[in-house]
Amino acid sequence: MAASADVARPKRPAIPPNVRAIVWARSAGRCAFCNKLLIGDLLSGKSDLNAAYIAHIVADAPKGARGNKVLSARLSKDPANLMLLCDVHHRLIDGHDTRGEYPADLLRRLKEEHETRIEAVTSIHRDASCHVIRYGAGIGRNESPVNVDAVKSALLPEFYPAHGGMIDLDIPDLGIPDHDPSYWPVHQKSLRDKYFERVKGRLERGEISRLAVFGLAPIPLLIELGRLISDISEAHVRQLLREPKGWKWDKADPLLKLEVAQAPKVHGKVALKLGVSAAIGDERVFEALGDDASIWSLSAVAAHNDIMRTPEDLRIWRQEVRRVLEAIKVHHSSADFLHVFPAIPVSAAVELGRVWMPKAHLPMRIYDHNRALGGSRPTLDIVHQA
After folding, report:
1. Contacts of 230 (CB under 8 A, 6+ apart)
2. How much of the chain, in percent, has pLDDT values that exceed 70?
3. What predicted TM-score, i.e. pTM, was given to this entire model?
């Protein structure tokens, strides 16, 4: 039965404009539940449509959702008690059948988490922009896309992608299995061509001042990517962690400890084992190079495939691998190539390529252990390229 004109419902107190502005600003015009942008509508084409609702956590009336005889009046105009929502979530928290699922404590936590994230994102300095290199190529039979949303999340709050700053060097499936000898030169050429087309000229013209590198590809190709980037450019290389899954660095203390073993002889072909993700036996080298190979090694203590977890771990790797490359050049200056057998994380592969210097270190021939071929085979050479 509708209320008569003589028994009008009490008018809800209006939220003052300055309070509404505070709620909008703290939420950045986005739903505190789903982060949906509440300005504009693609279907109607109205770019300035306001699709937001300002909802009370504790209702402004005692009989409302989460209402309270004392707090409803006291908090009705308090920005801390108000949250910006889309239509769907506004209906959920205030609906007669669903409001019980959304107690005040839960809503306060969701509001705080959303506004804290907005504060972190919007407080980034304007000089913290970077251009992002995304490089994915097939690993065995698995595809390795580098997800854009995951990249953006990993960069914050230290950096943010520059406008138009996503540089895609991904290689589509070319239909060539990685045990086919043509796989490596084809992919190496594709990587070089894309890098020269999309990155090199922009770096030389000063259009790119900082790079963030996200690579998920076979190790030899990542080493080549690092060589192309070099250590002249400012580049922040990221590692995909397995546990917890994602590109964000771990905030724990560094755990990487590396051990160096120098070759007991200096004649024959010189090899370098890089056992960081897994141990590498000497037999793998001897099978590929012969029994007279001189073997150096740079290995992680307790090597495993999720060992590279912090920026400091990666810094330790850069420092130690540079020292080993320099020592090998001193002891084997007449060698044509340094034969490299890597079992290393993706970030370590990129940094190996960046650390390698054409005039200071031996050219590298990178090997891949391929089960289909029953052993390690040469893939590509890391040499000076104009």
Report:
1. 354
2. 92
3. 0.77
